[in-house]
Amino acid sequence: MRTYITTPIYYVNAVPHVGTATTTLLADAQARYHRMQGLDTWFLTGTDEHAQKVSDAAIAAGETPQAFVDKVSQSFVEAWKFLDCRYDTFIRTSEDRHKDVVREVFQRLEKSGDIYLGVYEGWYSVADETFFRDTDVDDNGIVKETGAKVERIREDVHYFRLSAYGERLKEHILTNPGFLIPDTRRNEVLAFIEQGLRDIAISRKNAGWGIEVPGDSSKVVYVWFDALINYLTESGWPKNPAWNQTWPATAHLMAKEIFTRFHATLWPAMLMALDLPLPKHVVGHGWWVVRDEEGLLGKASKSKGNIPTPQAVVEKLVDASGANPLVARDALRYYLLRDIRFSDDTEFALSMLQSRYNAELGNDLGNVLNRVLKAGYFGGTLPTEAALDAGLQADALKAKDAYIAALATYDWGTALQAVNGLLACVNRYLATTAPWKAAKAGNAADVDTAIYNALEGVRFAAVLLLPAMPHAAGEVLRQLGLSPDVASGDFDRLTTFGALPFGGQTAVGDVIFPRLAFPVPTVEAAPKAAKSEQKSSGETKPVDQTSPAADATSSEITIDDFIKVQFRIADITHAEKIEGAKKLLRLEVQLGEEKRQIVSGIADSYTPEELIGMQIVVVYNLKPAKLRGVESQGMLLAATDEDGKAILLQPAKRVVSGAEVR
Ligand code: MSP
Questions:
Q1: CA 255 to ligand 1 center in whole angstroms
Q2: Which domains does the chain have, with CATH numbers?
Q3: Which residues contact 550 (CB under 8 A, 6 or more apart)?
Q4: Closest to 27 measured CA to CA, from 231, 177, 225, 189
Q5: CA torsion sign, 254 to 260 to 266 to 267?
Q6: Best mutation site among 9, 13, 22 for ligand 1, i.e. most ligand atoms within 8 A of its Cβ?
Q7: For the chain: N or C, fewer Cβ within 10 A?
Q8: What is the helix, strand, coil percentage profile of the chain, to 5?
Q9: What spatial distance separates the first Cα and last Cα of the chain, rounded to whole Å?
Q10: Strands of 531-580, DSSP E
């Protein structure tokens, strides 16, 4: 039996952006992971081509709908190629094989009495391609949930007897806890069914585009009824005798807006009516949301023009870091997979991408590799023997277990967090074993043990990262002297701690993840020294983080003095300049449940935009002080670089907000 994974089929005239890319990446990473495990895996994506808005767009472009869709579906093919999403089939609903299956379904359900004729009078939104109830629409004719305009229609239509399947659906959901993922969405679906399912109109008047209703050319099949069937079309049902090798699907992946109504209710009911098995998992992730000028978060969508294409982000990444374009592409893949959440929405921001990239890819992964491969004590040949470090081995296997458990529910964020946790262990291992010291002391066996185990930890992590970052993780393997190509079924062998061959030659290459600093427009030339600003307030100077620490360290303190200072991890949620103070920024930070504001003299080192989303270290129990009349409730920690710029201290990987630092 196949592992069959699908994305939604995207509206063909939409522009692929980082939102649509996220679902495709989740499916791609999952498919790569299953292929690595040696499972027969099938990954389907494609385009949904019969929407009314498609024919409207074709007419506006002066083209026939078919010529139009043939052209625009290419933008999806290109976007997925750019992101190296290796689907097995790109299905298009205008293909004949799909039209045949839709007609077959229609006829069978008409015969069984699940489809009947009636009249629909009510609201329809072309933008959402959805029929809405009066209660869904406000007084201005706008859908409350989506903001789309509706039109009033009165048409003879075919209905699908959805109301007959509520109880069976509920029972299926309750007896198959893994059917709907995540649990929060499962509960929403149960509540939706509880309200009572109503029969749904599944044909519309024929305006010259769509699949004609069998035996009634005045109507076309409603686009959602048509589109959902694509998943079944791909299996070859009903003509191909082997259709049940592919059906039921293992997982349909999508974002939340098309989860409850369509994939978790209508589609399973259609399958029940056809007497076909239901997909094993229906997985709904949250949205990427972006902040508007007023600071409010809203769905990222191309129509609002507030979300970039993957190509645009990668271009920026390359410009701002000098990374190889394929590495930059993988860094975007990593960020989207690492940060998309299943139960909640996530803010999409380049500053967040930057902090993931610098902290987890540049520091945790890249640095540890460079620290060994380029170290003076390492000559480029792996040790010919070394004992495995039991602690690191346990860390690696624990990370692998957490990774596998997370991927059983398609949760790439948690899986990648586990890999990052392993890399933190490798960094700690290297710091503790300190092979540079052992080398100085002439202790060759200890040097070999440290080199071997640290590089083995990196290799192990790189294998787990391959599905998310095929090129960049492959590059890590290449620098370790290994092949980046993993044969199907190699997962278990490669995730055995100690699989790094002894005596191999490593290959020193470029820094894989060069530091990323997105350029931000400079409002004014940053002043070099603005000490007067702190003094002019006439207050204490707790927030001058940019001043070198030399003065402060001139006298010794005891541990008793030191432990009085509480350090905590804070998330910067907002940052802005303080009017009239060239060097000061007002930051809003979150420390667990607590919100605080901190005034800091770092305006010549950081722009407000790049600070938002960063995790920093703050002195938590400092007496509040006022700077330029603004209260500062703590102080952040920063080092100073050669140019006198403040460099904020950050945890090596993201930790829980408010975590204590010891
Ligand atoms: N054509 C229908 C799907 C039919 S499936 C039988 C459709 N297409 S769509 O082009 O609008 O794509 C919707 C999908 O795009 C979402 O389910 C999700 O996978 C993805 N996303 C679109 N915007 C998104 C965000 N802002 N954030 C995350 N995913 C987003 O609906």
A1: 6
A2: 3-285 (3.40.50.620), 347-494 (1.10.730.10), 531-661 (2.40.50.140)
A3: none
A4: 231
A5: positive
A6: 22
A7: C
A8: 40, 20, 40
A9: 51
A10: 567-578
Q: What is the pLDDT of residue 549?
A: 31
Q: How confident is the model at residue 147 (pLDDT cuts 50, 70, 90)?
A: confident
Distance 97 CA to ligand 1 centre (A): 24
Q: Would you mind telling me the total number of residues written for the chain in this entry? A: 662
Rounded to the nearest angstrom, the distance between the alpha carbon of 278 and the centre of ligand 1 is 21
CB burial class (10 A; 0-12, 13-18, 19+) of residue 525? exposed
Model confidence at 616: pLDDT above 80: yes
Q: Which atom of ligand 1 lies at the shortest distance from residue 23's CA?
A: 19
Compute the distance between CA of residue 27 and CA of residue 249 in angstroms, rounded to an integer: 13
Is 424 close to ligand 1, i.e. is its CB under 6 Å away?
Answer: no
| Distance (Å) from CA 8 to ligand 1 centroid | 7
User: Is the CB of residue 254 below 6 angstroms from any atom belonging to ligand 1?
Assistant: yes
Distance of CA 606 to CAs 525, 577, 612, Å?
Answer: 12, 11, 10
Q: Tell me the C-alpha distance between 652 and 661, whole Å.
A: 12
Q: CA 355, 462, 312 angle in degrees (round to 5)? A: 45
Check residue 629 and report its DSSP letter. T
C-alpha to C-alpha distance for 525 and 545, rounded to whole angstroms: 20
| Whether pLDDT at 234 is above 90 | yes
Per-residue pLDDT, averaged over 159-178, amounts to 98
Calculate how far, in angstroms, residue 345's C-alpha sits from the geometric centre of ligand 1. 14
Nearest to 643 by CA among 604, 614, 607: 604
How confident is the model at residue 546, as a pLDDT? 27
Cα–Cα distance, 585 to 469 (Å, whole number): 36
Q: CB of 24 closer than 6 A to ligand 1?
A: no
Contact 102, 270 (CB under 8 A): no
Beta partners for 90? Answer: 45
Which residue, by CA, sits nearest to atom 14 of ligand 1?
20
How much distance in Å is there from the Cα of 486 to the middle of ligand 1?
Answer: 31
Structure-token pair, residue 650: 């950050």
What confidence tens digit (pLDDT) does each residue in 569-600 have? 998 888 888 887 878 889 888 887 678 899 98
Instruction: Please give the mean pLDDT across all residues of the chain.
Output: 90
* Contact (Cβ atoms closer than 8 angstroms) between residue 299 and residue 287: yes
d(CA 336, CA 271): 32
Mean pLDDT value across residues 250-270: 97
